[in-house]
Write a structure and sequence with these properties.
Layout: E1 18-24, E2 27-33, H1 43-57, E3 64-69, H2 84-87, H3 91-109, E4 115-119, E5 122-124, H4 126-132, E6 136-140, E7 144-146, H5 149-152, H6 158-168, H7 170-179, E8 183-184, H8 185-190, E9 196-198, H9 203-215, H10 219-233, H11 241-252, H12 255-266
Parallel strand pairs: 2-3, 3-4, 4-6, 5-7, 6-9
Antiparallel strand pairs: 1-2, 7-8
Helix pairs in contact: 1-3, 6-7
């Protein structure tokens, strides 16, 4: 069955990036559907995520929520950077965009059911942030992971950094951010970024078995365990959060951010100046 979601907004040529929600055998699937852009998340898609997660969590037949990208080419390649010049350039636009992204992240992280990111091929930037919001991450052996913020000149919000540090530790988190390099599936498994690497051949079947194993377990036990795990990792914001937020905003206000967007669009290496 398909859950009821907000009406997606088609582009000028009728192409419609959207979030889909379906239920099958106790698994609630949230599918990121933008295959033309490797399942990059548009602003409209960020805004659809809370309703999709609420619909799946509210379905009594769902025991586990799985997030995937449409097709085999990508899980989520990140935010749709082609929109940034139009929708994420002024301080007001950055604030509105971040609000939508934050609400989407909170909807995933706040889901009371077990959540699993089912990853194929590319899991980058906002896509990795989406995966990190899940309790578990499984990936095919061809998957690649990265947070390329330092190549684009943009700021990465504190909650996302904290989630990464809680998962892989400060040293690995620092390398992920400072180098902005790609990690293959084995590297991601080694540092704790993902839980399982599954073979490319037969991936869908292996993922289905993994999810069925979770769906068959006692719902109340998993609910209690999730609450306890959340409690164990919860922490107040640091005393210097305002200073951190100011440093992040300075990234979006900088010439380097404009240069990072231009370089991405022109497919060249950025020339950052630190201003």
């Amino acid at each position: 069955m398909t859950a009821i979601l907000p009406e997606p907004i088609p582009e000028a040529d009728g192409y419609t990036p959207q979030i889909l929600a379906t239920v099958e055998d106790g698994v609630g699937w949230m599918t990121v559907s933008n295959p033309r852009r490797r399942n990059a998340l548009t602003l409209n898609m960020w805004r659809q995520i809370p309703a999709a997660m609420a619909a799946l969590a509210g379905d009594a037949s769902v025991r586990v929520v799985a997030i995937r990208g449409e097709g085999e080419a990508s899980f989520v390649s990140g935010a749709d950077i082609t929109e940034f010049g139009r929708l994420r350039s002024t301080p007001e636009q950055v604030a509105a965009y971040d609000l939508a992204g934050r609400a989407a992240g909170e909807a995933i992280a706040g889901c009371p059911l077990p959540t699993v990111a089912v990853i194929r091929t590319w899991c980058v930037g906002g896509g990795l942030g989406t995966a990190l919001g899940c309790d578990l991450r499984i990936a095919d052996a061809n998957s690649r992971f990265a947070i390329p913020a330092a190549k684009l000149g943009l700021g990465y919000r504190y909650p996302g950094v904290k989630t990464l540090v809680d998962l892989v530790g400060p040293s690995h988190a620092a390398e992920i951010f400072y180098t902005a390099r790609q990690y293959d599936a084995e590297d991601a498994l080694r540092i704790g970024l993902i839980n399982r690497v599954l073979p490319v051949e037969g991936f869908d079947e292996a993922a289905a078995r993994y999810l069925a194993g979770i769906a068959g377990n006692a719902p109340l036990t998993m609910k209690a365990a999730k609450m306890a795990i959340r409690g164990a990792t919860a922490a107040a914001e640091p005393a210097g959060i305002e200073e951190i937020d100011a440093a992040i905003q300075a990234c979006f206000d900088s010439e380097d951010y404009a240069e990072g967007r231009a370089a991405f669009k022109e497919k060249r290496a950025p020339r950052f100046q630190g201003r």
